[in-house]
Model the fold of this input.
Amino acid sequence: MKKLILLLGIILNLFALMGQEKNILVEDNFSDNSYKWWIGRSPIGKCEIAHGEYIISYTGTKSWSSNIDAELNSVQDFVIESKMSRISGTDENGYGLTWGKGNDGFYNFIITPKGKFYVRKVERGKKGQYLIDWKKTPYINANAITNKLKIQKSGQQLLFFINDNLVATIPFQPFYGNQLGFMLYQRQEIACEYMLVYGSGKNLVVNNSKNQQVVVAAPDLRVLQIAIKDDQDIENLSSSYGNGNSIIEPGESIEVTAFVQNYGSLAAKNIEAKIALDLDDRNISFPDEYKTFDLGDIESGDYKKLQFFFFTSRKYASDDIPFKIILKEKSGSYTKEQPLGLKMNERTTNIVDVNIGKIDVKKDSEMKQIQEVIELADVDKNIPETKFNGENTLAVVIGIEEYKYAPLVDFAKRDAQVFYKYASSVFGIPKENIYFLSNNEATLGEFDKIFSRDGWLSRRTVQDQSNIIVYYAGHGAPDVKTQSAYLIPYDIDPNYAKTGFSVNELYSSLSALQAKSVTVFLDACFSGKGRNEKMLISDARSVIIKTENSAFSAKNMSVMAAASNDEYSAAYPEKYHGIFTYYLLKSLQKNANSLKTTSINDFFNNIKVDVSKKAGFLDKEQNPTLVGNDKDRAVIMY
Done:
């Protein structure tokens, strides 16, 4: 009877929770590092965000965790949920979620590939206490790559779910602190696909006019936008000085702009900010170290910005630049510290590219339903690592799934994210040699910046020595009058295709570089249709796209396109990729170590056969094309 009453209580609490209105406190799909997870490398592991995943690699013999401050009010009901993929490690060791972490302890919810889980409390100075001892469950995808974990507070109970199945319930225990995140044990690597937290924000207790304690909502200040200026400012020598490539490099003077936004429903009053550097290194100079920035009031949804400067000598060796911002109300009612996440030799948003405005703060917004995260396809995992040295190779990888003026291109962002992984692992290209853009980053201005005569590629290409790879997934569109093809950046309307980026101009600019080799993969079509068969342009009709001979002058330049002139590039829904990209990746996965001895023509023909066959089974017609002046040259020429 007691068990039945407890079960009924849990069910009633669940319905009550569903009926309440909650705020989303963390909604991170790892498209960037907005929530400031730790990124870096140590002797026993590393953490990085790449292609929509937070990847944690731990080579030590104990445990490792990565956490953020969620500002979670543990008095109220809440949900913490994540989906994680185990990349490598022994079957005996576990991984999972950690929460309620503070200076004096934490909790964790751990699963293993052998189908076991536990929940444990670890208190400083004491031996860890199992709240749920090792327990076998059929709901863990044993030896599989992906599992979803959820922790839910309902009333005074904590509920634990594995792949949406309730596996355990315990009484709620008070938090040690507000941090939560991921934990893994002993020589493992995991990829975290998302982190979602919803509940009530952390509250503030104050005295009212009658000297009674009341609870009010606190402000929530965050720095989610950082921009730099690294060009030559001749008029003001104390300002920025560099080469203007939006990458922080040794020997440059960098102007940093940090945008402080208030995500809380309460205004932040009389805010002071300081910038601190958690490093003692004479190779980095920081003139604003003792400066206090007076930001004044920041209303709910509004923002203020501050700027500071720093300089690194050519001897500065670290990858990290550990600046943090300290924010506080002068009254002392609110304080917060947050790392800024600046990195050496990685592209950072340039101040001229920032478009920031007020945000819409939803007060007591409805709990958002969690959308299913796409499972990994076979080409998304077990990506080969070759010994190819791609130091002399430059890659541009662009995937535009969401457009400002056009329909979606199903899975295009995912296509680009996974191709990026292959560029790094299979082609051996250093990450600083890869220019990656997705969705609203991929504007016409960015295309010009990359491919112009004095652009990103031109500045880095060494004649007859550099190899260039370009991958594009997104819309293409025809100009019917001129029978010319155009790539459609994020901010271009395909009905005005000529305002896009000309394919002939792309080929001309690549040919002019006189590189050792140029390889282009275009998962786009120019028939006026998109992957979902929706019409892009109002006057679409079949045209024969003409490629100007002068645009294709490079000897070792090859272009593989997803479809012929009057066809469209289709999606492969079962694999969550475009058909062409899926079989391109499949061929790279299968033939990774023989790309130096495989001709472009043979490599392409295998892809073409597979694409045409699969398109037929999907009731589509799609026949990829290959254009090149030397189809017998190897896929990799280094």
About this structure: DSSP finds seven helices and 38 strands in the chain.
